[in-house]
């Protein structure tokens, strides 16, 4: 596993608290392979995971790693290849191929890891639903999603965005209480698409 970024303030503490991988972007680990799965080698040393039933379809093609850094510095990796459609080259992502995603629909990786392309980890969704499952941000005042420091009251505040509207959840004496308030609201508003603070986090 790669070293954490020197300026990452969440590495050990967040991993110990949430039981998952650090989201500083220092690494995007290969997901643990579930039973009846196969590995698909990619470029840049990455490996994608697919169900054994999908291996014949996927392994017939060569795939490469598409690396992108989010605005919070987290590394996002997906498997892709280049195909020709109507004589023009276009990108085809592995997760979209497996889900036969129609134009306009998005495919969400439930655990947040773009390398885990097992069927149980993929679901069709809207752009809004995909955003709700976005991993915890690491560029704010708090280590938790939906939490920030309220300068006026000198307390930790929690808020959540639902259908483009920010909902104020209140101020709290400690950061963890604010994070728990966000989690409760996320579960209420987002259901299965909620990416909560206190659950296993995959980079």
Proportion of strand residues = 25-35%
- Taking all Cα atoms into account, the compactness measure Rg is 18 Å
Q: Quickly name the level 1 CATH class of the largest domain.
A: Alpha Beta
Instruction: Please count the beta strands (DSSP E, at least 2 residues each).
Output: 10
Q: What's the short story on this structure?
A:
The protein is α+β, with helices and mostly antiparallel strands. It has helices spanning 11-18, 55-59, 94-99, 127-132, 175-190; strands spanning 37-41, 47-51, 64-69, 75-85, 88-93, 106-109, 122-125, 147-150, 155-162, 165-172.
Describe the structure using short key phrases:
203 residues; elongated; 10 strands; disordered N terminus; 3-stranded antiparallel β-sheet; 20% helix; alpha+beta; 5 helices; 2 domains; Homing Intron 3 (I-Ppo) Encoded Endonuclease, Chain A
């Amino acid at each position: 596993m790669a070293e954490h970024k020197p300026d990452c303030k969440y590495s050990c503490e967040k991993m110990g608290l949430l039981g998952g991988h650090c989201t500083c972007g220092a690494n995007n680990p290969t997901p643990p392979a579930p039973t009846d799965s196969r590995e698909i080698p990619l470029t840049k040393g990455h490996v994608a995971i697919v169900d054994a039933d999908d291996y014949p379809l996927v392994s017939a093609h060569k795939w490469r790693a598409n690396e992108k850094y989010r605005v919070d510095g987290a590394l996002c990796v997906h498997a892709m290849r280049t195909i020709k459609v109507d004589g023009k080259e276009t990108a085809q992502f592995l997760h979209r191929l497996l889900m036969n995603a129609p134009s306009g629909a998005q495919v969400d990786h439930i655990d947040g890891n773009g390398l885990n392309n097992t069927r149980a980890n993929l679901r069709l969704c809207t752009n809004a639903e995909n955003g709700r499952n976005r991993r915890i941000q690491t560029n704010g005042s708090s280590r938790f999603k939906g939490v920030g420091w309220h300068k006026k009251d000198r307390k930790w505040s929690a808020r959540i965005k639902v259908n483009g509207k920010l909902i104020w959840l209140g101020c709290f004496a400690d950061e963890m209480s604010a994070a728990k308030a966000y989690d409760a609201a996320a579960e209420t508003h987002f259901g299965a698409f909620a990416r909560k603070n206190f659950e296993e986090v995959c980079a």
